[in-house]
Amino acid sequence: MNAPSHEAEAGIQQVKLLIEGEWKASTTQEWRDVINPATQQVLARVPFATPEEVESAITAAQRAFPAWRKTPIGARMRIMLAFQALIRENLPRIAQTLSAEQGKTLADAEGDIFRGLEVVEHACSIGSLQMGEFAENVANEVDTYTLRQPIGVCAGITPFNFPAMIPLWMFPMAIVCGNTFVLKPSEQDPLSTMQLVELALEAGVPPGVLNVVHGGKDVVDALCTHSDIKAVSFVGSTAVGTHVYDLAGRHGKRVQAMMGAKNHAVVLPDANREQTLNALVGAAFGAAGQRCMATSVVVLVGKTREWLPELKERAARLKVNAGCEPGTDIGPLISKRARQRVLDLIESGIFEGATLLLDGRDVQVPGYEQGNFVGPTLFSSVTTNMRIYTEEIFGPVLLAIEVETLDEAIELVNRNPFGNGTGLFTQSGAAARKFQSEIDVGQVGINIPIPVPVPFFSFTGSRGSKLGDLGPYGKQVVQFYTQTKTVTARWFDDASVSEGVNTTITLR
Question: Which of 65, 134, 345, 385 has its CA 20 to 30 A from that of 334?
C-alpha cells in the first residue's frame, strides 16, 4: 500500500472514482500502484476509497434508481446498442491498455474484451429477456400475470484476470434490467475497466446509474453490508468469494459468487490426437494459466499416457514474452507475489514426489528481465493428495494423471471439490453421453477444453466453484437482477351480477 506525496504523483495517472456521473479525485491517503507485470513500470495509482466516498457512490445509485427503473425498456436497450458499438470502435485501444496492466498477449486481451462485448450484445435483447408470463381466465374472469421488476442498487466486485470481460458480465445486464450499479474493479488492473466505464457514459448511461469505487477489503465489506445494496455479484478467489457470500447473505443480499476451480480434461484413446494436444496446450498455458476455466489437470486414459512426450514437446515450443511483443504465447503473471506462489507450488510438487517433465521456473526473457514470468510447466505421476492438485495454482502449470478407464476418470473428477468446468476428448458419442450425464461439474466440454457458454446461455459452474443458485449472464442473470411480482386481477363491468359474499379461498 502506498501513500505517495504530491511530488511522487507528478506525471503518473491517478485513477478517479465515478460518483453520480462525475469523475472525482479521491481524498484517501491509501493508494496502490498499477504495475506493468512485464516491466515493473508504474502505470497509474489507484485510490482505496474512503468510507465517505463509498457512501456517496451508493447514495448516488439509490438516488438515480427511481427515475431509471421507470425508463422505458426500449431506451435502456438503445443505450446498450450504442455501448456495444463504442466497444467495437475502441477495442484495439482498450486491448493495449489491458495488455500493459494485466500482462496478456494483445490477441488474448482482445478476446477478453470481445467475450464481454458479447454480453453487452445480449443485453440489447432485454425486450424479450425481461418479459413476464400471462394466463387468462385462470378462474371466473380472473387473469394472472407476472412482472419482472428491477430490485434496486446492485454491486459488482471483479478480479484481475479478466478486467474487461467480468465487469461486462455484470453492470450492463444489471442496468439494462432497470437497476443502478456500484462497481469495484480489481485494484491491480483497473485501467481498462475504467475505459469501458467511460464508453458506457458516452453511450448515454445517466448520472448515478453506474458508479465506480476502488479499494480492498474495507470497500468490499461496505458493499456487502450497506442497507441500500440489494444484490452483490462477485468473481474471484474461493477465500474472498466465500467471505462475500457469507457477509452479504447475512445482510439480506442476493449473492452470486463465482470462485476457484480445478478443471480436468479427460482424454480417451480414440480422441483426435492432433486436435486434442493443441487444445490441451492452449487451455493449460494460455493467459499464463490465470483463468478460472483453465485446464489444469489432464486425465490420460489407457494408452493416451503415451502422448505425454508430445504434450511436453508442444508446451516447450510456446514463446514466453511480454504481451505486447509479436508472437507471444505466454505473458507474465500479474504480480511478483503471484509468481512466487506459483514457484512455491512447483517446489511442493517436486518435494511430494511428482515428476517434473517440463520446468518453467528459470525462463529468461531478454529485455524484460524484471518481468513476472513462469514458463510452461508439466508434471506427471501426480496424486490427488499433493498440494499441486488440491490447490488452484493459477499459473502455467499442467498436471497429468493416468487412469485405465473412463469410469475411473469420472470418479476422479467427481471427487474433486470444485465444479467449474471439465472436458472430454473422444470420437465416441456413447462415451460423450455417459460423461455428460455422470460428471458432477456445471460446465462440460466435448472436444472443447474451456466450455464457457455464449451469453444467451448462462455460466453454470457448480459445487465448490460457485455460491448462489443463479449464474452470470444469460437467462439466469435476468432472474438474479429482477424480482418477480405476481398480479391476480379481476375486472367488473356494469352488467356483472353480484355473487354475494364469498368466505372461501376458492376463486370461482
Answer: 385
Q: Which residues pair with 212 in a beta bridge?
A: 18, 183
> Quick one: cell of 83?
455501448
Task: Provide the H-helix boundaries in 151-289.
Answer: 165-176, 191-203, 217-225, 238-250, 273-285
Count of positions (residues) in the chain: 508
Q: For residue 351, give the 3-state DSSP assignment.
A: helix
Whether 220 and 244 have beta carbons less than 8 Å apart is answered as: yes
User: Any catalytic annotation for residue 124?
Assistant: no
Summarised one tens digit per residue, pLDDT across range 154-199 is 999 999 999 999 999 999 999 999 999 999 999 999 999 999 999 9
pLDDT digit string (tens) for 233-290? 999 999 999 999 999 999 999 999 999 999 999 999 999 999 999 999 999 999 999 9
Q: What is the reported pLDDT for 463?
A: 93
Provide the pLDDT for residue 2.
42
Q: Mapping DSSP to helix (H, G, I), strand (E, B) and coil, where does residue 468 land?
A: coil
Residue 53 · residue 212 · CB < 8 Å: no
Residue with cell 470462485: 259
Enumerate domains of the chain plus CATH numbers.
17-259+468-486 (3.40.605.10), 263-446 (3.40.309.10)
pTM: 0.94
**Backbone dihedral angles phi then psi of residue 421, each to the nearest 5 degrees:** -155, 155
Q: Are 176 and 126 in contact (CB under 8 A)?
A: yes
Q: How much is the average pLDDT of 139-168?
A: 96
Q: Which residues of 394-423 are buried (b: 16+ CB within 10 A; e: fewer)?
A: bbbbbbbbbbeebebbbebbeebebbbbbb
Which entry of 124, 177, 292, 324 is annotated as an active-site residue? 292
Q: How far is CA 259 from CA 142, 147, 155, 232, 465, in A?
A: 45, 31, 17, 14, 5
